[in-house]
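User: Structure please.
Assistant: Input sequence and predicted structure:
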Amino acid sequence: MSKAAMIVRPFARQDVGAVLALMQALAVFEGYDDKFRVTEADVIEHGLGPSPRFGVLVAEVDNEITGIAVHYLIPWTYDLKPVVVLKELYVAESARGMSVGHALVTRLRDHAVGIGASAVKWTVLRSNMPAKAFYRSLGARADEIWDPWLLTIDG
């Protein structure tokens, strides 16, 4: 599989099954698969419906979706500029080392620039050293000012 055969694009209806499969694979990798509740209907309604709540960039290598970048927008904050939040980045094991993740993050950054965003933000599992090295290789850095916090709502 060559780099020239890779396409990164926004997802469409025909991609929903592959996107959901990669979301589930990420849930397994990160250890929350027992809590994963997203269905194809959810992806369609909330990602492709009349008022999408998130977007997905897909990386397609030789006509197979091999990676996803699920993202959403914080419309504006203190500087009146939007912030793009990368919620999930996942590359199928078979496509790792082929620059799929790099292409997805680059395309997401281009999207952020295109809408006048001030930043792209995301979280990384503390134990995921390969991901941290990958993000550093793209010029990203850990936030030195803010630590993530969580208030759970049990239902």
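The chain has a mean pLDDT of 94.
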